[in-house]
Specification:
There is one protein chain. The chain is α+β, with helices and mostly antiparallel strands. The protein is built from eight helices and 17 strands. Strand 3 and strand 4 form a beta hairpin. The longest helix has 24 residues.
Length: 306
């Protein structure tokens, strides 16, 4: 079966590798254009584009699936299109090209967390269980019927990045199984059932920690925005990046945002009990341990995060 693979970030690479390893004829890869990365803003291929080049697969770079991109997809003559975090909408004209349609691997248990940031939103919301599904792509936002499902426990210390990495690998197996069933004429898709929730893309402001919230909510948000867009707070008007915090329910209470030492640890007050800082990156400096950062403060008790 001839497969067009659409994907952009590193979490899509395991699916591309799995399809190739399973013997599918991946005739082309659709991915986002090269983007400037790093301090020097070097134009860099997406992880999927880089892997496709290593595999000798033709790459279609497109920020959107316009008429020109649709024509290139049609020229590849795919029987089916597999899509994993491509990062753009697929219009009807392109959806109708493969005879088996487009099959999307999505990292949530649809209809929960429809949208661009399902894993991040699941962690922030405190879900105990999430998963991944394969479904037939439609013009609606993640509304199509589901072929297959897998579940994954959310661990108490999971960051969005760690959870997404696990799902990218287990999901690649699910995607391969779904395409194999489609190829054999044995795939059956069923309509989504359950409560709909939305997972819009995270912005910088989503990473700001509100110290007036309970410690549990702050901990979930810090883990949910790691690694992107990252957790942060401000001190004297300057933005400070933070890695996920640790819950300290037995520690003495502190006013929200106020800091205090606890042995070698650094605690911050919240709307409930304190949390412990792990690593901090002040503006213009490298990431460091909270203890190292605290040694540079004249009086820790006078420090207040805003």
């Amino acid at each position: 079966m001839r497969v067009l693979f659409a994907g952009t970030p590193a979490v899509a690479v395991p699916s591309l590798d799995a399809l190739v390893a399973a013997g599918f004829d991946v005739v082309a890869v659709l991915t986002r254009p090269d983007a400037p990365l790093g301090r020097k803003r070097v134009l860099t291929p997406s992880p999927v584009a880089a892997r496709a080049a290593e595999l000798g697969i033709d790459v279609i770079r497109a920020a959107k699936v316009d008429a020109g991109t649709t024509a290139r997809i049609a020229a590849a003559a795919p029987d089916v299109a597999a899509i994993v975090a491509y990062g753009g909408l697929v219009p009807r004209a392109a959806l109708e090209i493969p005879r088996h349609g487009w099959i999307n691997l999505h990292f949530s248990l649809l209809p929960a967390w429809r949208g661009a940031a399902p894993v991040q939103r699941a962690v922030i919301a405190g879900d105990d269980v999430t998963g991944a599904v394969t479904f037939r792509l439609e013009e609606g936002l993640d509304t199509g019927p589901v072929f297959g499902t897998l579940t994954e426990a959310v661990h108490p210390d999971d960051t969005a990045g760690a959870l997404l990495e696990r799902l990218s690998r287990s999901g690649s197996v699910l995607l391969t199984q779904t395409l194999s069933a489609v190829d054999a004429g044995k795939a059956a898709a069923v309509s989504q059932q359950g409560q709909v929730s939305l997972a819009p893309k995270l912005g910088l402001e989503d990473g700001r920690l509100d110290w007036r919230q309970p410690a549990l909510a702050i901990g979930r948000r810090a883990r949910g925005v790691t690694p992107e867009p990252g957790a942060w707070t401000t001190l004297a008007g300057q933005r400070i990046k933070l890695e996920p915090v640790l819950l300290r329910p037995g520690a003495p209470a502190l006013p929200p945002g106020h800091l205090a030492p606890d042995g070698k640890a650094v605690l911050v007050g919240t709307g409930s009990h304190p949390v412990e800082l792990t690593r901090i990156q002040p503006s213009g400096k490298k990431m460091m341990t909270a203890a190292d950062w605290a040694r540079g403060q004249a009086t820790l008790e006078s420090v207040v995060f805003e």
